[in-house]
Structure formats: C-alpha cells, structure tokens
Specification:
- The complex is a heterodimer of chains A (490) and B (219).
- Chain A is built from 19 helices and two strands.
- Chain A has 490 residues and is mostly helical.
- Chain A has a two-stranded antiparallel ribbon with strand order 1-2.
- The radius of gyration of chain B is 18 Å and the shape is globular.
- By secondary structure, chain B is mainly α.
- The chains are: A mainly alpha (490), B mainly alpha (219).
- Chains A and B meet through helix 5, helix 6, helix 8 and helix 9 of A and helix 5, helix 6, helix 7 and helix 8 of B.
- Chain A: Residues 130-423 form the NADH:quinone oxidoreductase/Mrp antiporter transmembrane domain.
- Chain A: It is a multi-pass membrane protein.
- Chain A: It is found in: Cell membrane; Membrane.
- Chain A: InterPro entries: ComplexI-like_HydComp (IPR052175), NADH_UbQ_OxRdtase (IPR003918), ND/Mrp_TM (IPR001750).
Chain lengths: 490, 219
C-alpha cells in the first residue's frame, strides 16, 4: 500500500499524458489534467498523513527497489506540486479555448500541450521522490526537455529564441551539477559508499574528502541554482517565463524553481556534515543577495508585466536561498512555507496575466491601464496577488518573510537580512508603482471579460494563500518534520 | 595487459580525447566540427574499454560500447542530418579568432590542472591523474559554447562538456550507477533532438541559424 502511494504521484500524471497522446485535447479530456493533478494532491496529502502516523524524522518507505523514497520533505514538496498543478490545470481549458479562438494554436499543438504538461508534472514528482542524487538529476534535466516546446508553444520568433536560450543555458548549468554528482560519487566511493543514495551519503558524510566535496558542492549549488533561477545564472528565466503559455508559466515559476531548490536542500544536508555549515552558508548568502540585487535593479525600469513577474520569481528564490543559508528550524520552516505561498501567489498572477495578454495582445505595461474599471473581476485577483507577493498580511508570504528575518537576526546574519530588506523595499516601490499604473492609471478602455473557468483557480489560490497566513493548521507538524529532514540546526 | 601497456593505452586515449577537443577550436567548417566530435566519441569509448579490460569488468566494457554507440554514432549522425538539411557549412566569424582561441585553450588547461589537484590527491592512480585532461575538455566545450555563433557549433560545445563529464565519471570511479547512466544518456539524446527541432524552427522564423539573430528578448 505504502509503495503504491509512492508510485502513484508519478504514475497518475504519466497515465494522463498517455491518454492525451491517444485522445488529444477535446472538451472532455481538457479536464483530465485537473483530475490528474487532484489525484497527485490526494496522494501527497495521504503520504503526509502517514508520515504523521509514523512520527517525523525518518523515511516513510521505499518503492521500486529503493529508487523512490519519501519523507516529510518529499511529501511537502509533493503537496506544493499538486496544489500549483491543480490551479494551472483548472485554468488550462479556458486558456487554450481562447488561444484556439484567436488562431494561435491548433489541435496538434493542443494535444502536445496536454502530453507535455502532464509529463512535466510527472517529472517533477519523480524529482522530489527520487532517493538518489543521480535520479534527481535525471528528473530535473527531463523537466527542461519537456518544457522546451511548451516555452516555444506559440512558435513566434520570440518564443523560439526563448526556448533555445532556455534549453542551452539550463542544460549547461545542470551539466555542472552532473559533474558535481560525479565528484560526490568519487568521494563516496573512496569511503565505501557505492551508491548515490542521499540517506547513505548523509550517514557517511563526515568521512567524505573535504577537498573533493568543496568542488562538488560548489558545482552542485551553481548547477541546480541555474535551474532555480538564482543569479548569476538567471538569464534564461525572464525570457522563458514570459513566453510560455500562462498555465505553464505558473507551473514553471510556482513549482519548478522550487523543485530545483529542493535539490540544493538535499545537497546541503550532506555538505553541512562534510564541510561544516559555513561553506554552503557563504555560497547561498552570495547567490541570495545577488539574486535580490538583480531583481531589484531590473524591476525598476521594467516595461513588460510578464517579465516583471519573472523577475519577482528571482527575488523570491533569492529569499528562499537566504533562508536556507540561515538553516535553523525557524528559517527552514519559513523557507518551506515561502515556497508554498510563492507557488500560490505566482500562479494566480501568471494566470491573470495570461488573461490580460489574451485580451490585449500585448504584454507591455503601458498597454494596460484602468483595469479596476475595465475588468473588476480580473483586477481584484491581480491586485491581491501583487500584494501577496510583496509580502503584505494576511497572505502567508508575510509570515514566512518575517520568519526568515527573525531567524536571520537570531543566527547572526543580521547584515545579510538588512541588505535583503533594503533591496526588498526597492522592489516593493518598483512593483507598487507599476501595479498602480496598470490598475488605476490612464483613461477608460473596453471591458475585459474573465472566463469562469479561470476565476475559480484565481480565487482559490488567493484564499489558500491568505488562510495559510492566518493559520498553518495541520501543515504545522509536517513543516516541522520536513525542516528537521532538511538538516535544521536548533 | 601489463601495467606499462595499460598506462600507455590510457594515456593514448586521453591524448586523443584532448586533441579532438582542441581541434574543434581550430576548424570552422561545421562538417569538420561534427567529424571531430565523432572522433572524440571514439576516443572516449576507447578510454572506457581500456579501463574495462584492465579491471576485467565485462559490464564496464559493454557500457563503454553503449556510450560509444551514442556519442560516436547516433549523435554525430543526427547532427550531420541537420547539417545536410540546413545546407549551411561554415561558421561565420567567431567572436574570438582561432589563434586567440588556441591560446585560451592553453590557459584553460592550466586552470583545469590547478583546480583538479584535490581530485588527484585523493587517490593518485593512472586513471585519476588523467582527470585534468577531462576538465580541460569541459572548459574548452564551454568556451566553444560562448564564443561561436552557429546553433550547431553551440550544440557541439555543449556535447563536448558532456563528453568530458562522462570521461571524468569513468576515470574517477567506474562510472555512475547504471540506472543513472541510462537516464543521463536518454536526457542527452532528447536534449539534442529538442535543439534540432528548435534549429529547424529558427530557420523558419529567422531564415538562418546564426544566433546573433536572437536579439528580440532583452531588458
């Protein structure tokens, strides 16, 4: 039973992908994606509750001869994947119907969309359930390949350019991570650990050769950091995320970045024992502040609202990296909560930005004005989503940012937190000004309608994000257990 | 196989591996670059097979042959087909001229030696002492990727990096576990196919595969 629960999160979306391949995308199969995502979420919740029964801290179980393994951290990441996938898949039918009506897509492209999105979700589930560094790498590289054609979905010049840059930069980045994995394997082989299983590597980490591990960890952080959109390897992100179809952007920004960061969390557990906590901490603080600085600098003069959202993702991944660098229990709980909150908020914004883009045909900020009067139903979620991402209460990002800041001051990283806060103030000012212009600025224009199929995920996402900000509810113990597994220091 | 012969054969394979990598910097015809990449795949295969014979490990020899089939057979074949389809045979003026590129390769080799000292120190066998060579090819591949303008040259640069990582894996330990190796090969093959389709689309959209055309997206 337990092993079935482990296989299902990968198997359900994969099966849905096969159905799309056979039947194509029609009125009925359009909702299959949402169904599969709901199935994934159900499995994730079931895994998390069994985790509770067993008590935190140790693995739930293994499946497929130990290839898959689940613990509180995997279960939590699966919940994030399931939630964001559900929002994105609920909005997909309406989005694709509008694309079809506008002549941007055809039946073949829609079939491919169904197959690729489901395979992409399956690959992410595989990544967080993989028990070895090697399989994790394979799954993350597979996400790059599967999303390449989704980024280039529209086949315009810009979309093709974005897809090319995306595949080349991410593949090169992740190739560096592969070299890191090879070196970890070398260090492990030397002390008699013949597999790449993390549990085993973490157990023997204190005997791994520090000289080799230093190079390996640097490569792994750089490599997976590329995929997580952290500076200085972030160049592909604004292009890819602004060109992909809105539901895919929501998946990529909302979860894929976090799944790549999850790999860094797993590496950090091994690295902290092998090299002491200082090494990864220094690396992560550098990339975190660099990401925040890049985001702040490029958000100031941003003229395109989809790219604005992409840079905001770089900012939030920077915050997540900063929290991971701090590394105590409070910080890691906040980091995981931040990952979930960002996933919800960013999906809402990308989905509403997709509606805007379809209605106006332009993603320029100055093309949008007076949203509040023209499209009150769309302006509401968009405005609330922006407030959520800027970290205002009652949304959960406020709580998690506060948690990261408090943990940072307690751990003696006050200077880094102070620098981050200054950069975040710049970001709040920039995004606030641009948001105000889109929502309130300018004269009247024609009304923009919001399809009901999109309204539901928008409101659900915002409600969940606000509810998490008020109370963690049953998630609290799961987050604590997951933080322990991610190597939280007291 | 005696010790001395093993070391000589290993060094010969590594030398060929390095030489083909450096020659990619020297040639500008795309067809020649694809040839060199195929030859490098052969050198990599030889390297793994020599290791396998020395360790009397049949599985390692078979894995080596599989790696060879992919990197010296299938991937060059796919690239040649793309080249014939596009009909464009020459690299336009690269960002860095050939003489400077070769000098840079020398600097990269020194860098690779400096960086890989800790790796060699851990267990100084003939095989691990060749790791700096693999890392040199990795850096050369990266250099090709950032200084060439044709889509196909960039692809070769990326694949050189990947060859170098595979070589490192086999020189340090007898490769990564088999499941992972299969996954990696599959990912690599798919990545190449994806990039190939994208070059076709690029030609349709831009009328060429000169990546200088990719200038629409920026801040």
């Amino acid at each position: 039973m337990a092993s079935l629960l482990l296989i299902a999160p990968v198997a359900v979306p994969a099966a849905a992908a096969c159905v799309y391949a056979v039947l194509g995308w029609n009125r009925i199969t359009a909702w299959l994606g949402a169904l599969a995502a709901a199935g994934l979420l159900t499995c994730a919740v079931a895994l998390a509750t069994t985790e509770k029964l067993y008590g935190g801290g140790h693995a739930l179980g293994e499946a497929l001869a130990g290839l898959l393994h689940s613990d509180a951290l995997s279960a939590f990441m699966l919940i994030v994947i399931g939630t964001v996938a559900l929002l994105a898949m609920l909005a997909s039918p309406a989005y694709l119907a509008a694309e079809l009506a506008a002549g941007h897509t055809g039946p073949r492209a829609m079939r491919r969309y169904g197959v690729l999105t489901q395979s992409f979700i399956a690959a992410m589930a595989l990544a967080v359930l993989a028990s070895s560094l090697g399989l994790l790498w394979v799954a993350i590289e597979a996400t790059t390949i599967l999303t390449a054609f989704l980024v280039g979905h529209r086949r315009t010049r810009q979309a093709t350019e974005a897809a090319w840059k995306y595949v080349v930069i991410c593949s090169v980045g992740i190739a560096l991570a592969l070299l890191g994995i090879v070196l970890v394997h070398y260090a492990g082989d030397h002390v008699g650990v013949a597999s790449l299983d993390w549990a085993e590597l973490a157990e023997h980490a204190n005997r791994l050769d520090p000289g080799v591990m230093r190079i390996a960890v640097m490569l792994l952080v750089l490599g997976f950091g590329t995929k997580a959109g952290l500076a200085p390897m972030h160049a592909w992100l604004p292009d890819a995320h602004s060109q992909a179809p809105a539901p895919v952007s929501a998946l990529m920004s909302g979860v894929l970045l976090s799944v790549a960061f999850y790999a860094i969390l797993r590496v950090k557990v091994i690295a902290d024992v092998a090299l002491g906590a200082g090494f990864t901490r220094t690396l992560l603080v550098i990339v975190a502040l660099a990401s925040l600085a890049v985001a702040a600098f490029l958000l100031l003069g941003q003229r395109d609202y989809k790219r604005l959202l992409a840079y905001s993702s770089i900012e939030h991944m920077g915050l997540v990296a900063l929290g991971a660098a701090i590394g105590n229990t409070l910080a890691l709980v906040a980091v995981l909560l931040h990952i979930l909150g960002h996933g919800l908020g960013k999906s809402v914004l990308f989905l509403s930005a997709g509606q805007l883009h379809q209605a106006l045909g332009s993603s320029r900020i100055h093309a949008v004005h007076g949203l509040v009067t023209r499209a009150p139903m769309l302006a509401g979620p968009f405005a609330l989503g922006l407030l959520a991402l800027l970290g205002l209460p009652p949304f959960s990002l406020f709580a998690s940012e506060l948690g990261i800041a408090r943990a940072g001051f307690a751990a003696g990283l006050g200077w880094a937190i102070a620098a981050a806060l200054v950069l975040m103030l710049v970001i709040v000012a920039a995004v606030g000004r641009q948001g105000q212009q889109m929502l309130l600025g300018g004269g009247p224009g024609e009304a923009i309608a919001l399809p009901r199929g999109v309204a539901v995920p928008l409101l659900a996402g915002l409600a969940a994000c606000a509810a998490l900000g008020i109370t963690l509810g049953p998630l609290h113990s799961l987050l604590q257990a997951a933080a322990t597994i991610a190597g939280a220091t007291p | 196989m005696t010790d001395a012969m093993y070391v000589q054969l290993l060094d010969l394979a590594c030398g060929a591996f390095l030489l083909t990598g450096v020659l990619v910097l020297w040639r500008r015809e795309l067809s020649a670059i694809v040839w060199l990449f195929a030859l490098e795949g052969v050198a990599l295969t030889a390297l793994i097979v020599v290791l396998g014979v020395w360790q009397a490990d049949l599985e390692l020899i078979l894995v080596g042959l599989g790696v060879g089939a992919l990197r010296a057979g299938l991937l060059p074949y796919l690239m040649r087909r793309a080249l014939v389809a596009s009909g464009a045979g020459r690299e336009t003026q690269p960002l860095v001229n050939v003489a400077t590129s070769l000098l840079v390769a020398a600097v990269l080799a020194m860098l690779a030696y400096a960086v890989s000292q800790p790796l060699v120190r851990l267990s100084p066998t003939p095989a691990t002492q060749a790791v700096p060579i693999a890392l040199t090819v990795l850096l050369i591949g990266f250099f090709v990727l950032v200084t060439r303008r044709r889509a196909l040259s960039q692809l070769v640069g990326f694949l050189l990096m990947d060859n170098a990582i595979t070589a490192t894996a086999f020189l340090t330990t007898s490769g990564v576990p088999l499941v992972v190796e299969l996954g990696i090969s599959l990912d690599l093959l798919l990545a190449v196919l994806v990039l190939q389709v994208l070059t076709t689309r690029m030609r349709a959209a831009f009328g060429g595969t000169d990546l200088d055309e990719l200038r629409e997206l920026h801040d």
